[in-house]
Amino acid sequence: MGVHILDAMSREGFEEVVALHDRRSNLRAFLAVHDTSRGPAFGGIRRWTYYDEDQALRDVLRLSRAMTYKAALAELDAGGAKLVILDRPDLDVDEGYRFLGDFVERLGGRFYTGPDVGTGATELACLTERTRFATDPGPNGPGKLAEATVAGVVAGMEAALELLDGAVDWPRRTVVVQGLGEVGAGVARRLVAAGAKVLAAELDAERAEAVAADLELELLDPSCEYDPTCDVFAPCALGGILHDLTLTRLHCRVVAGGANNVLARPLHGDRLHERGILYVPDFVINAGALIRGATFHLTGARESVDSIGRRVGRVAGEILRLAAEEGAPPARIAVREAERRIDAGRDSSRDAHRGGPHLIDR
Ligand code: NAI
User: Fold this and answer.
1) The pLDDT of residue 2
2) What's the pTM?
3) Which domain covers residue 37, as residue numbers?
4) How many CB atoms lie within 10 A of CB 318?
5) Which of residues 357 and 49 earns the better pLDDT score?
6) In the prediction, which pLDDT does 1 show?
7) 125 and 174 housed in the same domain
8) Whose Cα sits closest to atom 25 in ligand 1?
9) Ligand 1 — pocket residues by CB below 6 A?
């Protein structure tokens, strides 16, 4: 069944959804701005071969709302958005990104954008030809986005282990890392250096061999990646991987990784909780790149990767402690806490409007 877009927007508080088409490049895309009550909306551009428009629309809505939650819990003066491109063979990629650069520039700083799946340095360079409001992949940009994510993911794992056992103690831990891309390989590298035993699965065989040889870690066949007994299962590949079929295969104590939208549906967070597996919510643990990028765009400062790690670890620890005190699934608590902060932002932006015209340029 198709998405009833206005119903979905009013139910979940979206501000704006824009459909974009460019005749010249054949670009087709959706922008969703979920919430700007705490500040301008941040979100990368995902370029993906979607099955149909409906799937793309669902993805952009889900991802943009998660960005708002991520920004709120990281205490950034920022909101959430996302742009998805429906990738097709007839798309002129460079021209399409230039078109998007012009579009983002016209929004005047209400929306800042950057990398995501399908948008790397080449695509960002086309965007930054046309707009000030996109991440510069070169030395003038924030840099170290994936490193910031990695530091947060490891700190989030440590917060979970501290809560369970009162100590991190990496040398006696086993971690399964799913996906050895930028984030997964970075997480594996840090854990190996800390003395943990790391097992990893990667679909791209060449990449898997290269990372495994470099880090001396043990490779798993991707068809068995959910099965090993371990302390932490770290999803660092795609979203939607925890569902009825995979959940029952897990033999871990903690799920904590960099991927966005790990749970196929919210109820799968409840299922993990019922099975006694501690889930560190994705939008809490993978906020590192957003913190680094948004802080740079909003203040010009490059917050250090270590400081970002500590910040993510502290928030993850708070959410997990609250969840433990209430005996509730951490994903539910994280959503509640994020919504509380967003509501407070809405109240204060309403108060600002009541005070007469204001000069904040969003
Ligand atoms: P990437 O594209 O560099 O790496 C993902 C890797 O996962 C690829 O090498 C792919 O072959 C592999 N893969 C896909 N499905 C797999 C499976 N079932 N089993 C094993 N390997 C599989 O992406 P990156 O940048 O490392 O990001 C990973 C995840 O983290 C994505 O979901 C991304 O949205 C999310 N994320 C990344 C951030 C960043 O700073 N790069 C920030 C926040 C979230």
Assistant:
1) 81
2) 0.94
3) 5-68+78-130
4) 16
5) 49
6) 63
7) no
8) 182
9) 117, 145-146, 149, 178-184, 201-204, 207, 222, 225, 236-239, 258-260, 286, 289
Amino acid type, 251: H
Same domain as 241, residue 96: no
Looking at the 3D structure of the chain, how many domains does it have? 2
Per the annotation, the verdict on 197 as an active-site residue is no
Mean pLDDT within 240-244: 96
Check the CA dihedral 279-203-215-181 and report its sign: negative
Residues 216 and 321 in one domain: yes
